[in-house]
Amino acid sequence: MTVKPIVLQELPSDLDKSRLPQHVAVIMDGNGRWAARRGFPRIVGHQRGVDALKDLLRCCRDWGIPALTAYAFSTENWGRPLEEVEFLMTLFERVLRRELKEMMREDVKIRFVGNLAALPHSLQQEIARSMQETAANSGIQFTVATNYGGRQEIVQACREIAKKVQQGLISPEEVDEAMLENHLYTVGIPSPDLLVRTSGEMRISNFLLWQMAYAEIYVTSTLWPDFDRSQFHEALKDYQGRERRFGKL
Ligand code: FPP
What is the spatial distance between Cα 178 and Cα 173, in angstroms, rounded to a whole number? Predict the structure, then answer.
């Protein structure tokens, strides 16, 4: 792993501390292309992607952004070649094991969202351990969407609510937005204010469909492993230049 010098340690002075997004979500696209352009196998791109994610997490903490969510593996990603899927599963497990101490030291509270029961057993154990051990931390909420699909999340929430209606615990009239939100994987985590997607694609790709209702979307052509603090600074400047109306005038 290469250790990059940490620049922009403090919040840049052209950003307004009182108008920072309180939750940033990222679609970390472009790892494979980053590697291919350098003649490396795709997995090298994923390894470098982890470094970029670690620095973004640290950056959010340094600059006072209390929540970061990263899309690590979608329900559609199982369609990739088996070796790549296996590599990613092993990478997630290794990273969790390796970084747990650091997360404790840096007061990170980690949570995984998605259909976790379908992940390899050893990864599920590592996920459970990291969530348990960091549960009382409060420095930054770090959410990792793994085997996550937005439509599937909404379907499973509806299914749980339907069961409660069937059991007579609630009536259909009581079903409202707050109740649906309380049955999503992300219960208790405020919706993202800003979605950053790297490598130029202008899509949401089934990520946090419900939660993204009023998120500002920022797309950069930078490939994920090259997304650093100065790029994030640009994204935040762009965000602060926007007027958020939430459907009002
Ligand atoms: C998209 O690039 C990236 C991924 C599918 C994996 C991202 C995962 C990480 C960076 C690791 C996170 C780990 C933990 C434990 C938090 P791509 O492969 O789609 O790139 P391409 O579009 O160039 O092919």
Answer: 13
Is 147 one of the catalytic residues?
Answer: no
Q: How far is the CA of 183 from the centre of ligand 1 (A)?
A: 27
Q: Is 29 a catalytic residue?
A: yes
Spell out the residues 6+ positions from residue 6 whose beta carbon is closer than 8 angstroms to its own: 55, 58, 229
Q: Which entry of 62, 77, 137, 206 is annotated as an active-site residue?
A: 77
Domain ranges of the chain: 20-149+191-237
For the chain, 249 residues long, the average pLDDT of each consecutive 10-residue run is 70 97 98 98 97 98 98 97 97 98 98 98 98 98 98 98 98 98 97 98 97 97 98 97 84
Superfamily of domain 20-149+191-237: Decaprenyl diphosphate synthase-like (3.40.1180.10)
